[in-house]
Amino acid sequence: MSLDDTNPVLYANRAACSLQLKKFLDAASDAKKATELDPCYPKGWGRLAAAYQEIDSWVAAIMAWQRAIAALPIENLTAGELKQKEQYEKGLKEAVMRQRKRQDEIDNGKEFHYIKERDYVGKKPADRARAMYPELRDKGMEGFASSGWVLYHANNEFTRGLETMNKGYAFKGANGEMLYQARTGVLDSFTNAIMRDKRVFYINNPKFLETYNLQLMSEAKTHGAWTEGGPVLIMEEAQERLRQKGWKAVRAALGITVRSWIMRAFFAAGITKDYGASVEWYTNAIDLLDRGRMVWRNVSQENRGVIFSNTFVRGVRSLRLESYLQAYSEDRGPNSKYPLTTLLEMAQEIAEDCLSDSPSRTVEYDPGFISSFYVYPWAEALAMIGYVKKEMAYFPGITEEDRFEYLSVASTSYVEAAKKLPDDDELHCWYAKIALEIYWELKSPLYATMAAANMVAESYPKMMRIWEHSSLAMGGRDKALAPALEYQRDMWPLIRNGALDIRDAILPPKHFYASDSKSEA
Fold it and tell me: Other C-beta atoms within 10 Å of 317: how many?
């Protein structure tokens, strides 16, 4: 703050600007500074609470709302103060409700991928992939194009992180205070795992989050990571720390900071279902990475760290795609707070990045790495482009001509997405199924519909070896795929014996695809 760094009003006003710009970490940092300069300043506490809510910090938001209310006069309030009190009490009520909901989900074991290990021994896709390891290894290069390798290495990262985290323990310090001893590397392993394939992540211990938070605090303290502030402030301080302490200190601190934000985003989407907060955390991570890549563009990866590599940044962008889609799904339509045009831009950026960035010929990659950081992000981006076009086709006021164009692009995008993926991945099957439904909607000829239906039929037995008991399967995947399989089974003999011409447009008996399928990703 160049004018007066002791004036709480200036910090609170800058926090208000950051809130408007949706820079919530910067808003929280400035609002907190305002409350430190003047603990009795209600607007400082109110803006701090508002910022905390946007980043899914409900306990902190509750405390800040309470302090904001307490800072107001008890009696003889002005009209402006009465309005503030009403706003703060409304915010407090919402924060209490959201925190209570979150705690209920944790207490009742409703976190994403929460499983009872004994019920799924050997059944999880990652377990199936591990069992296939000898087969995949013996196939050599031929076996590289399998989702089994992707899961195998993603699960190795996740298991390594879980085992390391579980070695941490609490103990009493010399003064009787409770301390926590933890090994480092857990955040590296967890983030590497979800960027390789987020489907390997699960929680099988009700105390997982409690242990994780202790682990996070330990690693942040060990490496001097930033626990406050947004990308702008952190980049300023990182450059100053670099001048004072060198790359070793800065590289570790930035690594933990960025990875903690990634996990915060992942948990916001997976546990509290606060997809807006998830998008915010991912966006802040990407913002910080982009700033670092610009400032240190001539610095080697060895010095600045792997977090600034193309593959790492692409991994974060891919994770954000799904959270943004989920945020849009809660507020669908042309006037959504999460515009489809933004999702389209994000997806196109990833697709273009994958097209222009080839793997290094001098680096030896493990089987699955290229798929995780090049093939899968590209496929997901294409599927998102398909989703956007399909969704826009049903917006009010769309002409039949435009609807046909949107759906045509959508079907092509889904087919391309399916073709990018290994044919033993359930998403290969799923994307082909969505393309088929769009072809039906377009009344496309058999040469188009059967191409998609054949992809589903040929993929299904292969993907069931690995993905039989996946989360998508538990959500009704096989029932949704059944019409495509039946269509392929019924049409194929008629085409072979000449009863049908591939130029004919043959629809299934009932248009089961015309409603629910429109919201699928």
Answer: 22
Q: Smallest Cα–Cα separation from 379: which of 439, 329, 318?
A: 318
Of the candidates 361, 231, 217, the residue with the CA atom closest to the CA atom of residue 283: 231
With CA atoms as reference, report the closest residue to 219 among 179, 261, 187.
187
Nearest to 326 by CA among 334, 314, 342, 338: 338
**356: buried, middle or exposed (CB in 10 Å: 19+, 13-18, 0-12)?**
exposed
- What tokens does 76 get? 């003889």
DSSP letters along 405-429, please? HHHHHHHHHHHHHHHHS-TTSHHHH
Secondary structure class of 383 (helix, strand, coil): helix
Amino acid at 468: E
Q: Distance between CA 521 and CA 325 in Å, rounded?
A: 8
Residue-wise pLDDT tens digits, 382-426: 999 999 999 999 999 999 999 999 999 999 999 999 999 999 999
- Smallest CA-to-CA distance from 60 within 94, 95, 91 is with 95
Distance from C-alpha of 500 to C-alpha of 180, rounded to nearest angstrom: 71
Q: What is the DSSP string of 159-188?
A: HHHHHHHTT-EEEE-TTS-EEEE--S-HHH
Asked if residues 271 and 323 have their Cβ atoms less than 8 Å apart, the reply is no
> Which residue has 């590599």 as its token pair?
309
Do the Cβ atoms of 200 and 376 come closer than 8 Å?
Answer: no
Alpha helices in 271-308 (DSSP H): 275-295, 301-304
User: In whole angstroms, what is the distance from residue 411 CA to residue 389 CA?
Assistant: 9
Q: Which two tokens stand for residue 65?
A: 């709302």
**Which residue has tokens 């925190």?**
99
pTM above 0.90, yes or no: no
Strand partners, 180: 170
Domains of the chain: 8-110 (1.25.40.10), 126-223 (no CATH)
Sequence length of the chain is 521
Phi then psi for residue 129, to 5 deg, are -65, -40
CA 63 to chain centre: 28
C-beta of residue 169 within 8 angstroms of C-beta of residue 122: no
| Per-residue DSSP letter, 288 | H
Whole-number Å distance between alpha carbons of 262 and 264 = 5
Q: Which of 311, 385, 309 is nearest to 354 (CA)?
A: 311
* Cα–Cα distance, 347 to 399 (Å, whole number): 25
Q: What does the alpha-carbon distance between residue 106 and residue 208 come to, in Å, rounded to a whole number?
A: 10
At 306-341, the pLDDT tens digits run 999 999 999 999 999 999 999 999 999 999 999 999
